[in-house]
Amino acid sequence: MLKITINSFSYKKGLPIDKSGNGGGFVFDCRCLPNPYKFEEYKYFSGEDKQIDEFFSKRPAVEVFLSSILNIISIAVNKYIDRDFTNLSISFGCTGGQHRSVYLAKLTAEYLSSKYPAVIELNHLEKNNWILKPVAE
């Protein structure tokens, strides 16, 4: 069965390593998209939060970008399954690895999980470094 590893990462820390030993996969640069970190009301959330979902839902360029990526990835996934490949790596990078890359990695994992018989592994490589506002008690 195909295992698809999806990573979000920070370009400041470098590209993720493909642990499968295949030495490759897709890498998408999300820095061309609007950055929630530039807005005080979104700065302390991550791409896992509904506030960031709402931020990106108001920006049509994000949907165009994601749709294009899903089309490209689907071609590869179909061929990988047909050829009995066992691993595919897909990585999304942005400046800090907290908003844009996380959001797109999350949606890609959801899409692939719903469409393909594959094992999906989602990793947010900068999660321990996210700048989050403490929850008020």
What does this molecule look like?
- This protein is α/β, with parallel strands linked by helices and 137 residues long.
- It is built from 3 helices and 4 strands.
- It has a 4-stranded parallel β-sheet with strand order 2-3-1-4, covered by helices on one side.
- The N and C termini lie far apart (45 Å).
Question: What attributes characterize this protein structure?
Answer:
4-stranded parallel β-sheet, 4 strands, 137 residues, globular, 3 helices, alpha/beta, 34% helix
- Radius of gyration (CA) equals 15 Å
Q: Counting H and I runs of at least 4 residues, what is the number of helices?
A: 3
Q: Largest sheet at a glance? A: 4 strands, parallel
Separation, N- and C-terminal Cα atoms: 45 Å
DSSP summary, beta strand count: 4
Order of helices and strands: EEHHEHE
What is the strand arrangement across the widest sheet?
2-3-1-4
How confident overall, as mean pLDDT? 95
Shape: globular
SS strand fraction: 15-25%
- The helix content is 25-40%
Determine the structural class based on helices, strands and strand pairing: alpha/beta
Unreliable residue runs: none
